[in-house]
Amino acid sequence: MRLMSDPPRQLACAPRDAGSGERTTSAPVIQVHALRKSYGEHEVIRGIDIEVRRGEIYAFLGPNGAGKTTTVEILEGYRSRDGGEVSVLNEDPAHAGSRWRARIGLVLQSCMMPAELTVRELVELYAGYYPHPRPASETIELVGLADKRDARTKQLSGGQLRRLDVALALIGDPDLVFLDEPTTGFDPSARHHAWEVVANLRALGKTIFLTTHYMDEAQALADHVAVIVAGQIVAQGTPATLGAATTPSATSPSPCPRPRPPPSSRPSSLRLLDSATTVASTSARASPRERCTSSPGGRWRAANRCAT
Amino acid sequence: MRGWRLFAHQFHTDLLRFWRNPQSRYFTVALPIVFLVIFASLFKGTTVVDGQRIGMTTFYVPGIMTLGIISASFVNLTQVIVTQRENGEYKRLRGTPLPAGFVIASRAVVGVVIAVVMSALLLLIGRFAYNVRVPESTMVGLVIAVIVGAAAFSCIAFAVATWITSPEAAAPTTNLTVLPLYFISGVFVSDSIIPHFLRDVATVFPIHHLDEAILRPVIHTHGSGIAGSDLLIVAAWGVAALLIATRTFRWSPLAD
Question: Which residues on chain A are in Cβ contact (under 8 Å) with B87?
């Protein structure tokens, strides 16, 4: 089983090196150098460099119109670039083929679902596109849509549709997942729920490239944040170092992201996906490794626990 | 999945989605049948086609078959393409390993299959309700005409879809384009009644030629029933549309 043979993963709440912002020394999954893009006369991306390491959550933080979506669409292969070099999973997205696309998962900014299909039918449809898909029913369970398995997509709420987006991005078992503004328009409880799903993705070994205009989201989730304004990266580092830089009045940078509310205060609608994490938090004395390896049930539940 | 299995996988879902869509069921499947029954009931007697006097129902069955083929492979397909493009489905699909050609070909083949099924249904109704028989010798020509017509109009749908900006505009645009063309192409009334200059306008477009290619095997009992020159013109429209589509087809929402 994959999780047992891998080294213990860095948990979302593990202390970070607040000073130097050192990152895990693993091969870069995304490398961008001097990227440029213009729409006519208007230059939207003015020479940016990006490096994303394997297994980390990299957040691209900036206001609307800063160039986040343009950048991520260039990385995903949807848009051409006017200058610079881009390497995603060792290939140039502009010329990559279907084998490359099998290794990435995309959660696009706004994407509607085929209204006539059920959740299960849609996930199984996408599973057929990939050479090594995850099991459809486990993926549906992973995003907390098990009880909506046979519902038509038109019956799902906004938050449920977003979770279905994540299921479709995961079904191919990608190495790298792109999330473009994943929680825009969500109410606070749905946002926290989405953050848990993202943290779970990292526990599954995925590398995540996330764009957002919410600073708390970047703080809560990311290992590394790059702040983009008007097409240029103006600051980057760990959330801790950035927090210290931008809020001089803060006493000391918190090594942990903002703590999640205790389970009992969360609305009951979250409990479905939370059942594993709720159990894990009550047995908090077990070390992270023990929780992962000794958990009963499937490895996906174990993934939930590891992310706690 | 790869290859034929992948194509069949995509085709199966596209067909399922067609059938589950109420608009598709009513306008593409039910409506031509309703048209045939209404026309055959209202307009009795005979008409003249190519100097030959034939019964009205013998005239209407091929005409409504033409309408059914165009509904399935052009009107319905254009609506589906514009909708799936504008709601982001095609964009998401382009991020998966599914080959672009499969996305297009699968849905085009659904259009052809529906056109063939509709044609068969209309022929059966014509045969058993109105005694319109197609000679066995010309049946091959009829089948060829249905398939070539449906394939060509599917290509036209992919070419035209780029110019329709919103899903709400698709059905009105395509319907209002084909409706006058049906009239002047001899689908609703015989060519012999239509003024010459309107008939000349109609010969520019493929609907008239598809109608001829379907009419011929039904009313002519001799020969193979293959209206060669008409079919070539329909096929040429399809090829030209395919070439245009390969250059101009958009996968991302035009609204972006």
Answer: 111-112
